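Okay, can you check this protein?
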Amino acid sequence: MSTMDGIINTVSANIPMAPLLGLLKPNGKMIMVGLPEKPMEIPPFALVATNKTLAGSLIGGMRDTQEMLDLAAKHNVTADIEVIGAEYVNTAMERLAKADVRYRFVIDIGNTLDKAAATTTE
């Protein structure tokens, strides 16, 4: 709770927003790029009490995104990425600050969660 400066929310499903807003530090920012089909419930107190910001950026809906992915696949257009685990995010941010990044970072949350679950069950 209250540990993140910012969140880029790419989720297009309807999910509770209060827990995500709770992760932000005071003055934190959440940028929405995923577009749920149904209206979201935003608890105003979670924003106002700690001066948090909720903003959006229109990058296209799911249909547009799928169309773009299909076109890229058809023409063999790929992206150069560096896949990292969540435990590497702080190092990745340091590398960004030093301009020591050749590719985009992609955070592999699924494998990070799987590793964490495996560790807790051992």
Q: What stands out?
A: The chain has two domains: 4-61, 79-119. The CA atoms of residues 93 and 105 lie 10 Å apart. The chain is about 40% helix and 20% strand.
